[in-house]
Specification:
Elements lengths: L9 E6 L2 E4 L3 E15 L10 E16 L12 H9 L4 E6 L6 E13 L7 E14 H15 L7 H11 L1
Length: about 170
């Protein structure tokens, strides 16, 4: 078993046709939530409640250090992030784990801020709110293969073997 190093799990944003990393990124996190609808079933006894998920959403929080660059061909600068937020642009994002198993999707910038402390580098933080379902390279390959086998009239019994094979090729 290997662990993923946070240094290589990088948030990229697509700008002018290319995915560029957010410049001087120090932290990024991905969070999913489900909206729950309270339900009542016959098995509810002794005050226990039940619920079912009815809607899902996700967000990506990030932070980093502000560079003196206003724009760049190699990174997404703080200024570029602020412009994307102010223009209310739907953006395409990708989080790479360095092993080819990327998460990706679309989002809006919900918030962006910077902080300047005396004798320290200026830092920034922001939050993306996802639009639609996030995608994953591994899942896309696995479920695409499974759907194709079943559509062709085949059976799908070796799920673990297929998953191990896909893991090796990505």
């Amino acid at each position: 078993m290997e662990f993923i190093n946070g240094t290589i799990k990088i948030l990229y944003i697509k700008q002018y046709g290319d995915y560029l990393p957010i410049g001087c990124l120090t932290d990024n996190s991905f969070s999913e939530t489900a909206d729950m609808l309270d339900t009542t079933v016959r098995t509810n006894k002794n005050g226990w409640s039940s619920s079912i998920p009815v809607g899902q959403s996700y967000s990506i929080d990030f932070s980093g250090l502000v560079t003196s660059d206003i724009s760049s061909d190699t990174i997404i600068t703080f200024q570029a992030l602020r412009d994307i937020k102010r223009q209310r642009q739907l953006l395409e994002w990708r989080v790479s784990d360095g092993n080819g198993n990327d998460d990706y999707g679309q989002a809006y910038i919900k918030s962006i801020s910077d902080s300047a402390t005396i004798d320290e580098f200026v830092s920034f933080s922001g939050s993306l709110v996802g639009q639609g379902e996030p995608k994953n390279t591994f899942d896309e390959l696995f479920y695409g293969y499974k759907d194709r086998v079943l559509a062709d009239g085949g059976t799908f019994e070796a799920e673990r073997c297929v998953k191990e094979y896909i893991e090796k090729i990505i």
